[in-house]
Amino acid sequence: MDDIYFSRQSGLEETRLVFLKGCGLPERWKGRGSFTVGELGFGTGLNFLGTWQLWRGTRPTPKAWLHFISFEGFPLDREDAARALSAWPEISELSDKLIERWPERALGVQRIVWPEEGVTLTLHTGDISETLPASRFAADAWFLDGFSPAKNPQMWDKSLWPMVQQRCTDGVSLSTFTVAGFVRRGLADAGFDVAKVEGFGRKRERLEVRLNEAPQPAPDVYGLRSPDDRPNRVRIIGAGIAGACLARTFLDRGLEVEMIDAASGPAKHASGNPLALVMPRLDAGDTVQARLLIDAYLRARQFYAGRPGVTETNVLQRPKDEREAARIAKVLADPPLGLENLEAAVSGQLHKQALILEPEKLIAHLLEGAETRFGEKLHLSDLNPEVPTIIAAGQGAQDLLPWLGLTGRLGQVEFADVAVDAPPSAIASGHYALALGQTRLWGATFEAWDGTGPDLSEAARATNMAALEELDPYWRQAAKAAELQSRAGVRATTPDRLPLIGAVPDEAAAREIFDGVKHGQAIEADAPLVGGLFMAGGFGSRGFTWGPWAGEILAGQILEEPAPATEPALEAVSPMRLILRALKRGG
Ligand SMILES: Cc1cc2nc3c(=O)[nH]c(=O)nc-3n(C[C@H](O)[C@H](O)[C@H](O)COP(=O)(O)OP(=O)(O)OC[C@H]3O[C@@H](n4cnc5c(N)ncnc54)[C@H](O)[C@@H]3O)c2cc1C
Ligand SMILES: C[S@@+](CC[C@H](N)C(=O)[O-])C[C@H]1O[C@@H](n2cnc3c(N)ncnc32)[C@H](O)[C@@H]1O
């Protein structure tokens, strides 16, 4: 598209006058605990940085948060963005922070958080006609910043304005640099009050747009709506990776966190292996599920970066069978992630910037600042509806909420300390082998669980040794010489292999209200919820990838913040989906 992102002479001034002043900032965020800006057209991020700079100087309270949600169809590379932003030395400190964590090239939703500044950025990547309708949030201010309407009509199409209108809070303010007639008419038709005001530079006029009545909410079939009151404390049940990620996320938001676990300390169950792998699962098709797997992976990388017990590594993924080889070939032909993340390897694919985690160290760090109570088992009768409670109990969630139908899958890994120090490395092919310093870890088995233990078995060790032989015969030799140890755990799995993240419905009431679904009826009703009860679980074999994304989703829902995921993704992981699916199948 032959148009400019901003004027070289006056871009930052234009941001300040057209968008910040045009939306009544900073006055409008005075006294607010959080403020949400929506933007059409992220470009170089200059408007975001201008807003962040103003926020820094006028943050209403030390605990207040700014959420900036932007939409971009043609994301710039990090290098191009850095070059463009170097024109503004006065905001170089903030540009550097943004460039350091610049979003990856991937269709989907990426969330970047700067907890020390009270700022989140949520970037929806893809064509606006797809990304805007899939988003879920309400903005206090909107910056309409496509390229000029004559050159970029898609960003000013009248079909967008009713969707913008549905994503507005009471008293919202919108602004834009254009006064094009069709834009004004489209906005007015969607119910906005549109005023021309004095412009900036070459543009003599600009628009300030207001909406006096917030839209009516649609029925909340999947239970995604936020509770009425923002809490200042949450209770989390389970100190595995799910609970630890949740704890850190809520602590960073300034809440008090109470952590309860039946075990004698953190990471005593599935999350307690000496090493764990975080690598992407890339699907050949572009589906909701394929995208949310990437969103969660990128969120995990952002969240873990720089924390104790986190090491970057390449992972060589070798296909475990012909079906996987075909999938990998398709992925490499049209990669869903930028090539800085992915490369064809001699056999399979190489994932760059994946992670090896040391769970014990990492989880202890994530829990710093939480009030922990170990050796205490929660029963549903202990719930206190005043304090939102999040069940992050791994397979233990099944005892608390039997209707979830979680299936436990037993797994075992082998590990050893060897004489030779190795740089971080990982090979995966169904099983995986990890090396970090002197530690080697490999596995894992995946078997039916009989509800006891989990117990170690010689058969599982034999399976893991055979798998290691396939993965890397050299390691097999090194392992033979070392003293081997094993560890077993139970993965909590769901029938559709997606996690359970969201509000917990009242199952009996939901079955009654949505009974018509059995007969093919579309029931437009709110899901009945167990007040104050949420969950994050069913993480299967990827708990370390899901944890950080689950933290942001639940912080978004419980604290009434913009969602860090599309609405179809939130529905796909909501606990309510299990009930709706069972009813659809007549059960
Ligand atoms: C052998 C093996 C290897 C694996 N390797 C990897 C890997 O490399 N990468 C990866 O991403 N994933 C891996 N996984 C999967 C991963 O371990 C899990 O997805 C993840 O640990 C689940 O975390 P969680 O916090 O949900 O559950 P858990 O870690 O099981 O934590 C649940 C906690 O809840 C507590 N609890 C339960 N019920 C109650 C109650 N009623 N009251 C109080 N407390 C309660 C438990 O004591 C426990 O501490 C592996 C799994 C296995 C078994
Ligand atoms: C004027 S620039 C935005 C400038 C930006 N706000 C900044 O601060 O740098 C307009 C942006 O809209 C994006 N865009 C154009 N058409 C789009 C479409 N159909 N869907 C999504 N984004 C689109 C462009 O790629 C471009 O980045």
Task: State the end-to-end CA separation.
Answer: 52 Å
The CATH homologous superfamily of the largest domain is called: Vaccinia Virus protein VP39
Bound molecules: flavin-adenine dinucleotide, S-adenosylmethionine
Question: Strand-residue fraction?
Answer: 25-35%
Query: What's the number of domains?
Result: 4
* Tally of helical segments: 18
Please state how the strands of the largest beta sheet are arranged side by side: 3-4-2-1-5-6-8-7
Q: Architecture of the largest domain in CATH?
A: 3-Layer(aba) Sandwich
Oligomer classification = single chain
Morphology call: globular
CATH topology of the largest domain: Rossmann fold
Write down the Rg.
25 Å
EC number: 2.1.1.61, 1.5.-.-
Family: In the C-terminal section; belongs to the DAO family.
Region (tRNA (mnm(5)s(2)U34)-methyltransferase): 1-212
Domain MnmC-like methyltransferase: 89-208
What do these coordinates show?
This protein starts with 10 loop residues before the first helix and ends with a helix. It folds into 4 domains: 200 residues, Rossmann fold (3-Layer(aba) Sandwich); 171 residues, FAD/NAD(P)-binding domain (3-Layer(bba) Sandwich); 59 residues, no CATH class; 81 residues, no CATH class. The chain has an 8-stranded mixed β-sheet, with helices on both faces. Strands 11, 12, 13, 14, 17, 18, 19 and 20 form an 8-stranded mixed β-sheet that branches. The protein has a 6-stranded mixed β-sheet with strand order 15-10-9-16-22-21. The model has no long low-confidence stretch (mean pLDDT 94). α1 crosses α2, α8 packs parallel to α11 and α13 packs across α14. The longest helix has 17 residues. It is globular, with a radius of gyration of 25 Å. The chain contains 18 helices and 22 strands. 30% of the residues lie in helices and 28% in strands. The chain has 587 residues and is of the alpha/beta class. S-adenosylmethionine binds next to α2 and β2.
